[in-house]
């Protein structure tokens, strides 16, 4: 191989990786928009009790993320990254606690 070909390969690989990263971001963006459209269509047909159920599921997922990130940071991370991940974990826990508090304080929503 000539030197020009090696330089072209070394320059072309990061550009290809950047393009691959950009297409993955576009895919994630389209996926998120599809989920939002689906949720908006489904929420119109749901009762308040079903909406509260899904909101509480979201709160439980946040609690799981909080525990997983706290354990991961305690076991694997050190320094500033540990503090950042633990702060994220604490924020997830506080948000999920607030959601559960609001759902529970709201009381029963079933109508007969």
In short:
This protein has helices spanning 3-45, 48-76, 80-106. It has 112 residues and is mainly alpha-helical.
**Strand residue percentage:** under 5%
Radius of gyration: 22 Å
Find the structural class using helix and strand composition.
Answer: mainly alpha
Mean pLDDT: 78
Which overall shape is indicated by the principal axes computed on the Cα atoms? Answer: flat
Main beta sheet: none
Contiguous runs where pLDDT drops below 50 for at least 5 residues: 1-8
Provide a descriptive summary of the structure in words.
The structure is a single chain. This protein is an all-alpha fold and 112 residues long. It is built from 3 helices and no strands. The protein starts with a helix and ends in a 6-residue tail after the last helix. Residues 1-8 have low confidence and may be disordered.
List the helices and strands and how they pair.
Blueprint: H1 3-45, H2 48-76, H3 80-106
